[in-house]
Design brief:
The structure holds two protein chains of two kinds. By secondary structure, chain A is of the alpha+beta class. Chain A contains two helices and seven strands, in the order ββαβββαββ. In chain A, strands 4, 5, 6 and 7 form a four-stranded antiparallel sheet that branches. Chain B is elongated, with a radius of gyration of 21 Å. Chain B starts with a strand and ends with a strand. Classes of the chains: A alpha+beta, B alpha+beta. Chains A and B meet through strand 1, strand 2, helix 1, strand 3 and strand 5 of A and strand 1, strand 2, helix 1, strand 3 and strand 5 of B. Strand 3 of chain A pairs antiparallel with strand 3 of chain B.
Chain lengths: 161, 151
């Protein structure tokens, strides 16, 4: 197996009319252009040229690049993405952020409870709050606040159908 | 603070997919994105018995501006289709929702509407597309073939 980069980045514009209805459209740009430059292009040249053609208003821009495993393993018979690990972290702005891990390994669940435990759980939590992760910076919440530690013990959750 | 999101897709035995998302600050870009994507996949694999098949990096920005009443016509399902390519077999189509109707000229009663390529706004978009955009496989866009209205 090897991780590969998809050959294109996609720029998705969300357009809205005065009724509040939305529609999207997608443009492809080369994968060699760095994110900052795509962002500048999408908000400048791309946006100006698009707005000259449509009478809806652009209200959102999303820039996506995919990476994929070119030979993924076969999922084991125990796997089930509805069984999730729920990790709630405290952020330095006083709020929390939840990370849900699909198909949490059942061997990490404390028998008779929904609590998660074990070296793998500790390692995952340590990496999430590691300020040196990626050699540059640790993870942040959706609003950009640094994650500082667990807010409550991680648990298994299961969506009932 | 603006953030960049990385979303890992996890596959299970039934072929169902679940997703796990995390964020890093935009301010410290450029990162080695592939390294971050692979690290996130490895982190998920630590605690999941599913298989991580892909990681998507997404950066979203919003203007947050609602169009004032009467400033735009309701989205009516109409689309501007712009085709690029050396031949129709390899043509790439760009679709723009709710096009301004003044961009088209009628080709006759019941014959539909064709994009007026002589308009500066149309020419500018075509030049931009050919200069800056690529097709879904990363290929360069061929010459502009034709533009039309679909609804």
């Amino acid at each position: 197996m090897a991780w590969r980069k998809q050959g294109v980045q996609t720029v998705t514009y969300t357009l809205r009319d005065y009724n509040g209805d939305t529609s999207t459209m997608q443009l492809n740009v080369p994968d060699t252009v760095i994110l900052e430059d795509v962002d500048t292009w999408a908000k400048g040249t791309g946006l100006a040229n698009l707005e000259a053609l449509t009478d809806a208003v652009v209200v959102g821009i999303s820039i996506n690049q995919s990476y994929y495993d070119d030979a993924p393993a076969t999922p084991p018979s125990t796997s089930n993405v509805e069984r999730k690990g729920s990790f709630t972290f405290r952020a330095d702005n006083g709020l929390t952020m939840n990370i849900q891990v699909p198909s949490i390994d059942r061997s990490l669940v404390v028998p008779g409870s929904h609590l998660l435990t074990g070296a793998a759980v500790d390692a995952f939590v340590a990496m999430v709050v590691d300020e040196g992760l990626f050699d540059l910076v640790g993870l942040v919440s959706a609003s950009g606040a640094k994650l500082t530690g667990l807010y409550k013990a991680p648990v298994e959750t299961m969506r009932r159908k | 603070m603006s953030v960049v999101s990385f979303t890992a897709t996890v596959l299970d035995k039934n072929g169902d997919r679940g997703r796990a998302k995390m964020h890093v600050p935009l301010s410290l870009y450029p990162y080695d994105e592939q390294s971050i994507a692979v690290t996130w996949a490895d982190m998920i694999s630590l605690v999941s018995d599913g298989v991580v098949t892909r990681v998507d990096r997404t950066y979203k920005s919003y203007s947050g501006t609602l169009p004032p009443a009467g400033s735009s016509r309701p989205l009516d399902g109409s689309k501007l289709l712009l085709f690029f390519g050396e031949t129709w077999q390899d043509a790439v189509c760009i679709i723009v929702p709710n096009p301004i109707m003044d961009l088209f000229r009628s080709t006759g009663p019941g014959a539909g509407f064709v994009l007026d390529e002589t308009l500066p706004a149309v020419q500018s978009f075509i030049d931009m597309a050919r200069g800056d955009l690529v097709g879904p496989e990363g290929q360069a866009l061929g010459p502009f073939i034709v533009g039309g209205l679909a609804r």
